[in-house]
Sequence to fold (305 residues):
Amino acid sequence: MKKRIFLDYAAGRDNPNAIYLEGRIARARLESARARIAKVLSVATDEIVFTPWGTEANIFSLGGLTPKSHIITTAIEHKSLLDAFAKFKNVTYLKTNSDGFITAKQVEGALRSDTRLVSIMYANNEIGTIQPIKEIARVLRRSGIPPAEVLGKNPQTIGIRAPRPLFHSDCVQAPGLLPLNMQSLGLDMASFSAPKFGGPAGVGFLYIRRGTVADSQPRDAGALPLVEEMAEALEKADKQFKQNLPTGQASKHLKLLKLRDYFIAGVLKNIRASLNGSRENRLANNANFIFPIDSELLVLELDRY
Fold:
């Protein structure tokens, strides 16, 4: 058998778009990773798009919107989204309560006939608040006809009811700590970043429900080895979460929750500080405090000790 020599290094060895053997092998590996991620989220494989970072996944979720589109969001979203929203003229920023929560009723009250996107973070990266995603999804389902019908499946209904807005969520903090079933959550789009659940830096992915976006579907943009590592890390994180699912009052005895609550109680008892966010309804790995000291000085002192 003749020795096979690879010469297309200008394109790269793991190029899944190449039509020769190495490219077909790379494509099979990419689709295998996509299928593993889709299984964790309980979605179809063609609903997963790879991105370089979670930030790009957030930005890609805005594809298809026009400058006049009305958007509903909060002021505590990730900076990448807040910067992107600043370019739109019609944005409603819902006010959170003192613990950082909004309600589905607030979203319902902010809806307009021209609302095209609702973007609410699943769990906040700073104060750990977990938003009522399912309740918001139920409100949006009642608000208008599904986006897939607007895209042409049932055009007769367009004049009767307004199209319901798409529901996007920054889910970067969720893997390993919260349920990830997209069908149960009722999301149309969701952003993820690999480093947040033990995966490699430089890769993330976006879930886009089939039929919700017409011509603005982004193309994959992630290095194959990183995508494969991300799929493995996501499976591991989700497995660990499901193994620790609480049953009734057993949730109080989960190791991570116990450690979090022990830490919070110890800080509040022994140090002059106040807790940001809810004492209970927060991520199991999150504690956020205000201390009566300049933040940079506090970091330097903690580093020194």
About this structure: DSSP finds ten helices and nine strands in the chain. The two ends are 65 Å apart (CA to CA). The CA atoms of residues 56 and 153 lie 30 Å apart. Strands lie at 48-51, 70-74, 90-94, 115-119, 166-170, 189-193, 204-208, 274-275, 289-290.
